[in-house]
Amino acid sequence: MKLTNLLASTAISAAIAFGATSAFADGHAKSLTVVSWGGAYTKSQVEAYHKPYMAKSGVKIKSEDYSGGIAEIKAQVTAGNVTWDIVDVELSDAIRACDEGLLETIDASTLPAGADGVAAKDDFLPGTLYDCAVANIVWSTIFAYDKSKIASGPTTMADFFDLKKFPGKRGLRKGAKVNLEFALIADGVPAADVYKVLGTPAGVDRAFAKLDTIKGDVVWWEAGAQPPQLLADGEVTMTTAYNGRIFNAVAGEGKPFEIVWDGQIWDLDLWVIPKGAKNKDTAMDFLKFSTATEQLAAQASYISYGPARKSSGALVGKYAGKDIEMAQHMPTNPKNLTNAVQSNFEFWADNADQLGERFNAWLAK
Amino acid sequence: MTDTTVSDAINNAPLVAADGTPLKQKLARTTRRMKIKAFLLTLPLVLFLLISFVMPIGQMLYQSIHNPTGSSVMPNFAKEIQSWDGEGLPSEKLFEIFVKDLAEAKKSREVGKTVGNLAIRVNYELPGSTSLIKKTARKAKKITEGPYKEALFAIDKKWENPALWKTLKRVSRDYTMSFYLAATDRKFDQSGSIVVVDELYQIYLPILWKTIWLSALITALCFIIAYPVSYLLSTLPLATSNILMILVLLPFWTSLLVRTSAWIAMLQKEGVINNVLVYLGIIADENRIQMIYNMTGTVIAMVHILLPFMILPLYSVMKTIPPSYMRAARSMGASGTYAFTRIYFPQTIPGIAAGTLLVFILAIGYYITPALVGGNDGQLISNLIAGHIKKSLNWSLGAALGTILLVVVMIFYWLYNKLVGVDKLKFG
Predict the structure, then answer these.
(1) Subunit contact A275:B200, Cβ cutoff 8 A
(2) Which tops the pLDDT comparison, B155 or B12?
(3) Which of A82, B241, B296, B376 is 20 to 30 A from A172, alpha carbon to alpha carbon?
(4) DSSP letters of B31-98?
(5) Is the pTM of the predicted complex or chain greater than 0.80?
């Protein structure tokens, strides 16, 4: 496919412009380009992974931000000019990129054992190790509100969709994923049955009908840094968001936000190595280092995302420099999991195209 | 010999140049050399156009109909299934080839030849196939003997559906119309005939129509605003008109992003215009007007950004119209309106033609401004194309939409040529 190459080369020319400089500038010193989601999240990785790794190995890490998806990885791999060495991706994207042959395979048995001596494959939470990807954190989409503006705040997902009880604008991520699940939960579908219902045409209609009830009052966001800002600016009364971003706005900046865990949809972020990465071995070494017990636990003291290793759980302490116990702010805390759904990558692999089209058509009407 | 025969001989003898070659030949050679030289001068441009324009567009056209995923992933099956008549289910033999090809493909990690590539390709035509094909591929290598049909049915009942096999047959062909069907909100139904998709899923044609009429609206608004401005520019004394011209050109030279962001600052709910209206008490604080992140925002920002493309051709044409024509008409008794409509306006048509064509074609493919200020209902077709190139990674569908957009522009150009005549265009 010639156009593939051509599109790819156009798309990566920007990547080359930024990425290649790191490769040349450092001369013979080893370097590594680590790509992640930016903001508070990248900051937590820089503190917990990058700094100790640079100190230990002498490798110079260049941190780049992106906004998710596998377009750049695909473009770089198909053009044969891979400038990203290791990328933090969502589970559904990790699976798809692996399926398409865009990633290096990773042998999970080479990962270090937990601090307590348990082998990696037993130490990692179930469903966090894949052929081409190793999870580092569990994150979650929740909804949050400003408690200084609503005295007795919402407590359930149904409240989020209740404009009578809680008038005001709502923030939602632009896209079908997560929103359809939320709509069904709000409409009374038990968390465990969400994907079963969504798998039927009637279920999809039901989800869109529920979204219809608030459509006129929705402010759509796209980047993870937007929702805390929307809340702070008073643009919305409540908004869905990534739990770590809200936590950091509260703990780090003292914002009066409150997270509602009911109906949370949790997902994984994983490290992947694009096929043909220039510093593949260093990337693999960094991957092993950063997903070790201590580093995963260290990241959890900078942002409230749950570590993917069981052995890290015991080491998770307080928020960096403050007296806030992290454990209760984790998506994986049992009291936060009472009505929770794990995002189903298989469902979205099958339906993302079709539901995406319906969502766009719905949005444009 | 007589005098006449001598002169005849001289006349008939070919004229020769200093080196003895016939002059005619020499002249032809010189002109040829000059033509080659002239051509060589244009060569860089020709090559540039070829590489940066003709080839990418050609490849885009090609990619929209050529998708060899099926035959790359499962070469034997793709060949054999073409002889299947499409009635009921394929033969046991085809099932066997399918299972073996799938097991073989499962081993591949090469981009474009993996089971995942096939799964995604089939899923475009039959949603829900990704997990089915991946699951089956995982189990395929364990099926070592027949009956293969029953073995597949045991993995998933969906394999009993003839529509799935019809889809596989279509996907196995390297050349496909599927992406053009998808781009026009159509698909193959269970029986393999072309149908329009459910109204709830229709997105591309409605957005294309919206793009066309929004572009027409923007062009019309640009014209209405630009005509008097250009008239003023061309009739004012040079010193004044130069200052006005700078006011037109300054935004033209400013970055597109800056201008779009400026409109966001102006039009948003907490923006300048709303603040002024609230301050003056014209609207209440809670009734601030939504002027951006919707179609209105797209239209306002695009009219402003495209305005210079209308003003400049109009101005350059108006500048060449001698004021004496209008005075002559008036002195012969024509009213102001009559003189304008019969004398002045017809002479500005080449400028109008150039301006409207320029603005319309720029507007129809505009991307950044609608992406930033369009919100939900102000998105244009180019935003959907970008979505397929960058987000859903369905490059073939993106290419098909791009080709349709190109054809629409060419149709408008042709119509324009018929109505106005391209030779009448005057840019300056």
Answers:
(1) no
(2) B155
(3) B296
(4) HHHHHHHHHHHHHHHHHHHIIIIIHHHHHHHHHHHB-THHHHH-HHHHHHGGG---SSS--HHHHHHH
(5) yes
